[in-house]
Amino acid sequence: MFILKPLDTSSYNRYKTLLDQGQGDLSFLSDYPKKTHNFYRVYIEDQELGVLIMTPGVKAYYAYYLVSPSYEEDLIRFCEDHLIRQGAKILAIGLGGHLGNRLSLLEARAYKRAFASEHMVYKGSHKTLDHPCIRPYEDKDYVQAHKLYAQAFHRMRVEVGDFPDSEVEKESDEMKRKWAATKDQRWVYEEDHQVLGVMRVVASELSTVSVAPSHQGKGIGRALVESCMTHILERHDHVDLWCVVGNRAKKLYSRLGFKVVNKEVYMEKQVTLE
């Protein structure tokens, strides 16, 4: 029924204009330049309906934008079938902007709320801040940096309460390779040869801000955020981040001048064989 065509830059810019006018979800605007998902234009015959994001995997993700409500249920079924054929065991969808009837539609299809996240943006002045304890990540940092990252994010998920199955992510060769492949995006906070904080920067976005639980509340997170904001603002006119609703780090981001511009609710369901 539906035909998918890759989303090119000119089409992205056209949709971006519509989304800038408040008709859709702002996460689309920040995700496309980073190529973190597969982006498509959705058609029925020659009629263009909107834009679709799909990321296959055991836990597969999808979201759609500017699609008429009359096509939503059929498009959800289409996405589910497409991702299940590629091996999905869990289906996740992001809902932003105006939820409309989508929430009840998904609940009727056995989706349950997983968590919510807020898109925050900083558009203030550019400050030059260099901190003596902050430096680029190196491969030799992996063991310390991954351990504190895994512990910090598990603690956050437990405190938020929306992640009952949260576990501390284990160190692995696969994860080590992923960190090595993205080391140019990572920064660490180090004192006395001990890594106490780590952060990732992807284009204009601050990501995975992590401080060792034993050293939280000592200004390390703020130093990392401010330093990486400087790095981003040398190349972009704003800074993005996503903050899980309930994460106490939001207080820090608000004090630094970040404003909430959008909220996205994530829903999930287990794939069952009929």
Instruction: Using the coordinates above, name the CATH class of the largest domain.
Output: Alpha Beta
The secondary-structure class comes to: alpha+beta
Can you count the beta strands?
12
Our Rg estimate from Cα atoms comes to 20 Å
Number of domains: 2
Beta-strand level of the residues, as a percent range? Answer: 25-35%
What's the end-to-end separation, in Å?
A: 22 Å
Do you know the CATH architecture of the largest domain? 3-Layer(aba) Sandwich
Number of helices: 8
Q: Order of strands across the widest beta sheet?
A: 1-2-3-4-5-12-6-11-10-9-8-7
What oligomeric state best describes the polypeptide chains here? single chain
Sum up the overall morphology in one term: globular
Low-confidence runs (pLDDT<50, min 5 residues)?
Answer: none
**Rounded average pLDDT:** 89
